[in-house]
Design brief:
alpha/beta, two-stranded antiparallel ribbon, 5-stranded parallel β-sheet, 12 helices, 13% strand, 36% helix, 319 residues, 9 strands, Rossmann fold
Length: 319
């Protein structure tokens, strides 16, 4: 696939931009471009949302969008809908959000609008919701994404539906029972479903059962349901694109995407490991509104994305 012209830099820049916007939505009510050092006044009074899954969502979305391009028969379903800042960042950059909300223009005013109104009274909820463009799965109650994907593909033979499944979600009875649908709906009269398991290792309060399995156990479990598992490191763009290429020519493919929970976020906070741990699940800097050390960590975190290389107020996004 690399020989066909993969552009890893495009994917990397897009992920950085969406990661930045995800964090900004969670924390900021002003100073969205870090034009001056952050102060407590820039931080929302109530911090609500989920960071830990966002980077993985952005990795999956960017790679899928790059591979499938503007294919009108492709759609994406997000299982961990609580990672809505990431989904909204992608919809915002692509102009999809603006189609249903004229204030969400992909410019400086639009960035201020989506960030200040995320998880805010009368604004955007912290989960995917009916106002989200194209939403057919809310994702707040986990487990239904895979079944929804098969329902979406039912009777549409040209359709490809990629569905991102959280590894915590993969523990639910609904998700596991939906794995049998590849046997029930795998015919030429229906579309193709591409499950992508987001294996980041942790759920809200500890490790996931899936992450505790050996690689052999996990692959055999997936095979037992009738799928062909494809294991990729989400940070390896070429490997991810190769896996998507193989999946496009394989019956019942199942991608297992490994990525560290909360990657690109704070590694340690108050002496506790955050990135690569369950503590990244929701808000990793819970006291950024009042604690100078946490405010500084947020400043460093946001600066690390070098957002000014990806967006400027005159030209907009330069991805």
């Amino acid at each position: 696939m690399y020989g066909l012209g993969i552009n890893p830099e495009w994917i990397s820049r897009r992920v950085r931009a969406c990661d930045y916007l995800s964090v900004a939505q969670l924390f900021l009510q002003s100073n969205f471009f870090l034009e001056k050092p952050l102060t407590f006044d820039d931080i929302k009074p109530r911090l609500l949302g989920h960071w830990g899954t966002c980077h993985g969502i952005n990795l999956a979305y960017a790679n899928l969008k790059y591979f499938y391009g503007k294919d009108p028969n492709f759609s994406f379903i997000l299982g961990p809908g609580h990672g809505f800042p990431a989904l909204q960042a992608n919809l915002f950059i692509d102009g999809d959000l603006e189609k249903v909300d004229t204030k969400a223009t992909p410019d400086a005013d639009g960035i201020a609008y989506i960030c200040s109104n995320f998880s805010w009274p009368g604004g955007f909820p912290s989960h995917a919701s009916p106002v989200t463009p194209g939403v057919i799965c809310e994702g707040g109650e986990l487990g239904y994404a895979l079944g929804t994907a098969y329902g979406s593909a039912l009777g549409h033979p040209r359709k490809t539906v990629a569905v991102l499944i959280g590894d915590g979600e993969f523990e639910t009875a609904t998700a596991l029972s939906s794995m049998n649908l590849c046997k029930l709906l795998g015919s030429d009269v229906n579309g193709r479903v591409l499950p992508v398991l987001h294996l980041n290792g942790y759920k809200i309060s500890g490790p996931t059962v899936t992450a505790r399995k050996s690689e052999r156990e996990l692959l055999e479990l997936i095979r037992g349901f009738g799928y062909i598992p494809l294991l990729v490191n989400g940070e390896d763009t070429n490997a991810f694109q190769d896996a998507l290429d193989v999946a496009s020519h394989t019956k019942n493919p199942f991608i297992i995407m490994k990525s560290e929970k909360g990657k690109t976020g704070p590694t340690f906070v108050d002496g506790k490991k955050v990135a690569g741990n369950f503590l990244a699940h929701q808000i990793p800097l819970k006291h950024a509104k009042t604690d100078p050390d946490e405010l500084h960590l947020l400043q460093v975190w946001l600066e690390g994305y070098r957002f000014s290389e990806l967006f400027n107020k005159k030209e907009g996004f330069t991805l």
